[in-house]
Amino acid sequence: MHTQEEKQLKQLLTGQATGQAADRREVLEQRKLQAQAIVQAEGGIAVLSDFVHATAYIYAGSFGRTVGIEGNLVVAGSAFEDDIFGCILPEDLVERHVMELRYYRLMQSVPIGERKDYHGACPVRFRLADGSVAHVLHRTCYLESLPNGSVWLGLCLYTPCGQAGGQPCIVNHATGRAVNAADCGQCPPLLSPREAEVLALLARGCSSKQVARQLCIATNTVYRHRQNILAALQVSNTA
User: Fold this and answer.
1) Mean pLDDT (the chain, rounded)
2) From edge to edge, which strands make up the β-sheet containing 45-50?
3) What is the DSSP code (8-state) at residue 112?
4) Which of 53, 124, 177, 187 is paired with 170 by a 20 to 30 Å CA distance?
């Protein structure tokens, strides 16, 4: 299932990098080795996304094999890890996409040379084949950008962490601090906590009446939240 924020992020990233580009094969190979080394050290999953060529290089450690990724390297015909998205609980997938949208928008306001100083992080839960749940830390960062500011290579990491904890955030490596709305006006929270709850239920296929019953609020209130979500995510419908 593709949520609206996931579709928006795909449109932003895959639609931004066009035109002729110099040969970047050597840089790509270096970044592929880096992703592989991280997986060997952490045992998780690394996804190196080439947004120019709409390709993802997926490296899986022992945890990757647990969720059904066979082999050390899988080359996907998309810059996004759709198979991995299917393992994440729907409400957590919404949080992951919202965090990455905030990260993307922040990076548009950061000088190209400073983008590597930031990463986004979001705890998510994976549903395993036996029905159990594994707690995983998702991290994303943009490794390479084109001279025009378009993102070329992004890296997503999924590392098992054993227990729940933490909130979605964006971290500045240079300061060691999380970026928040007070520190960065260009990166406001997209949704209120209640709107995020509504969106998570909508992503699971609930109707407005079902959302209202689960959250113990009026149906008209749900409609108002839906309109606010559309405006915040800059989309035209909740299909």
Assistant:
1) 81
2) 73-76, 55-60, 45-50, 151-160, 133-145, 118-127, 169-172, 177-179
3) G
4) 53
